[in-house]
Amino acid sequence: MSGGMLERLRRINASPPPEESIALRIAVLVAVLAGAAAVLSQGVGGSGLRLACLAGIPAGFLFSHLDRKHDRFWLKMALAVALLVVFIRFLASAQRLFDGGSAAEMQIPLAELFLWVQFLHSLDVPARRDLMFSLASSLTLVAAGAVLSVSLGIAPWLVVWAVAAVTSLVLAYRRQLDELPALSPAKRPNVLRPVAAVVAAVAVLGTGTLLVVPEAGTTTSLAFPARLPDVVRVPVPGGISNPSLGDADPARRGSTRQGNAGRKSFGYFGFSDSMDTAVRGRPDNSVVLRVKAPKPDFWRGQTFDRWDGRRWTQSDVRPQAVGGGPPIDLPATAGDERSSADDFVQTFYVERGGPNLVFGAYAPTQLYFPGRAVFQLNDGSVRAATDMPGGTVYTVVSKRPLVTQATLRSAPSGPLPAAIAPRYLELPPSTSTRTEALAADVTKDAPTTYDKVRALEGWMASNTRYSLHAPPLPEGADAVDQFLFVDRVGFCEQIGSSLVVMLRSLGIPARLAVGFAPGERNPFTGLWEVRGSDAHAWAEVWFPGVGWQAFDPTASVPLAGDAGVRAAGSGLVPYLVRHLPKPSAVEIEMAVLLGATVLLLLVGRRVTVWRRRRRARPRRSWADLRLADLERMGARVGAPRPPAQTVREYVRVLEAAGVAARPLCDVADAIETEAFSGETLTAVERTAVEAALEEAERLAR
Amino acid sequence: MKSRPRPMVSRPALILVGMTGALFLIARTSGAGWVMVIVSGLVAALAVATVWPGVVLRTVRVSVTAPPDATAGRPLALHVDVGGWRQQLKLRAVSLPGAWTGAAVPAAGEINAVPERRGVVGHVVCELRSAGPLGLVWWRALVRVDLEHPIEVGPVPDEPARLPVAGAGGVGGDPRAGAGLDVVRGVREYVPGDPARLVHWPVSAHHGSLVVKELEDPASHRLAIVVDLRPPKPLQNSNDAPQTGTRGANLETWRGFEEGEAAASRAAGIAIRALREGFAVTLATAEDGGARLAAVKTRTDVSRRLARAVAGAPPDGPFPNGTEVVRVTP
Fold first, then answer.
1. What does the CA dihedral B260, B266, B268, B271 come to, rounded to 10 degrees?
2. Could you list the residue range(s) of the whole structural domain that residue A53 is in?
3. ipTM value of the model?
């Protein structure tokens, strides 16, 4: 009995036969290296880990191949100990969770653990089963890199991994069949064809699947990343710092410190302590933020409530320090009506340094920010205590009022709270009567506040035009009056300001908010790519029971309650059309030329192969052809030639059948001479024979 | 005729499905768009791996050519021609059990099969399996290929040490006959034309003139083997009953009548030995078409006759005078 058990254990733990295919090993190695590169390209690991992966993994595979037939008991023991050490180090890193860190902080140590495990495993892959395990773990690496990636930079590694993984599976399947006796020792079919076919099929089907599966991320998130690469304190605590404005940086005005000389191309003047509607700046098209959020929204930076006919300022700029956490709990501010809606989690990845404003959807309730201390103004806007250079990451948790048209229409009316009126109803003396009259006229048939707002938006959409090239504002002129009645052309500052002024003239509390429009959703990363040109100003209107609601006739952002679930790949085709390089005429010509050359080469190759095969076929001699003529003649008259019959005998049969007018014995002689004597007839003799046959054929017909 | 291909889920496919599900959950909770791209790719790969081999397997055509004769329990080479869309698969004969063979379709070659029992095999059932090109989900199909000429599988001959008959090499007979030697009946004067090997030199020396041996006429040894494969006692279980009245001793219908097989083997052994010893052998067997009484001249004849023998009543004669009759039963 015990002998049987031992035998069974031995059989279960018996080493499988070593894998001999070098091609399979190389394919799996490429897949593993692509997975490792996908992770390392996200900034994971130090130089030691990079060396272990990029040099150690190939060396490990080589060692495994060379040592595949030996007993590896001590190596397995050593690897087990090394794995234990790596895991203990990982657990030590996990201590941060208990120190109040979030699950997001575990992503890097986890990715490092996967890389070390992959490196150690590469030293022990003698059999096919081990190679397949390596392939599966390379998928884990690729997924780890995909979790960390926020740009398109991981795409090349994904493509390489996909091709290598498919090649590995195809080769492994073929190896499985190679172990069996072969039915016929045929030439090994090319592996490239099935790999190319599978990759093409997966690409097409995968794209279709991407257009169907729900997008990544839900309203609930497990990860709240926060990271600050450099700590540069803002000169005035609680003040605004915007290095992208160069000399106009409010934090460094008049400072002798060497700041950013000159205006930066992507700076937006709305991110300052005041906003002159006559000046926009020239924010460019570079990506400044990437936002991970389940839905699009306005990424609000700050608001302005005091209007002087040209410039917006803030009536109350007393910052309150807010700390604690993580997370930092942000108290409610003037006009906030925090709903019981689900958390709306947004993670901001700063690509280019800009203002120290913490952008986020209204109404922010919690903040995950490195440093754990920020400043909040009583309009709800939040400012960091440090500059936010590229590489900064922070997470905002907002409670968005889930409103629809119906809920806004049914918002209760009544006296406005003291925190709202008169602050958000104030209008300067420069506001013209015709502006007030226009507002009253456009909204005279609108029963509710929501309808009034929509009516004004509709009027402006029909009667004004958005353009970044608005005429300059004359000195002393009211910007809203100039826009509504003179220019009728303007950018978001004029449009937003006009909407706010007209609403205030109707007794509806409104303010101007500045920040970023949602940006363009990248269907691959799932992130919203916010560019400098997305810097924006829009109106916020206060609704009782709801709070501040954004309205903007120029940007299409659905109401929070209306936005539905979208597919992961929605917007894929327009995104590709916009971002794929547009070839020039010369490049198109080159492509056509190249394609034609390739086609010619393929056709030429086919023709060459066909001709070679044709040459290899045995050629029919003159005698064979003449015999074929006789047989054809005989078949026509119902006298086919039996295989064993000689030419001479057959000719006698044909003559007896009355086929020829004169005897064909000369024809028979000629054929037999040519076929068997080794002599070749002269051209004259051949011609005579052919003529006799032609005559006979004519008669036979 | 081919059965519908059916999928067989493998462990790697299940692991991949599990990983895809886990990655989907990770994508939904982390908001990582690239993970959803990977999930889409994995779903597509699983779809390709599941559907592709099933579609391609449907295009496979199999033809089998077999030798006309075989012996039960001994390997038989079947020539198999597999056509269809290019693919890599493995196949084996299942009705005549054989080992797996790999094939890169289109392919042709030989596979070994071992008929387990005697009988007339009119068709071969082959099993095809393919998981190409990714090797994740195996599809299986059974193909029934009708043979142009049936295979007549004879029993394994069980030759006795001595024939169970009197005379010649049998009981009471000249043992030399059993060793395949000539049996001398007498001598006579040499007649021109007699073969030189028959000259009896000692007697010729004694006589002073050439004398030749006169051999026993082999045709005078006749043996009739009556093969009665019916069970000796009533069967308890109907499953054990040999299928009489069916089309030959078809392998698909013959069930576990081991004693009958042993009897057929003994009959084959006796017949083959008797032929070798110069007997004129007649076999009396029962076949699907009725009782049959006919001579057999070669080993192949014996094999074929016994391949077709069923458990029925064999003819009991009439046999020519001088025929020794041996009855073989289970």
1. -140
2. 17-212
3. 0.76
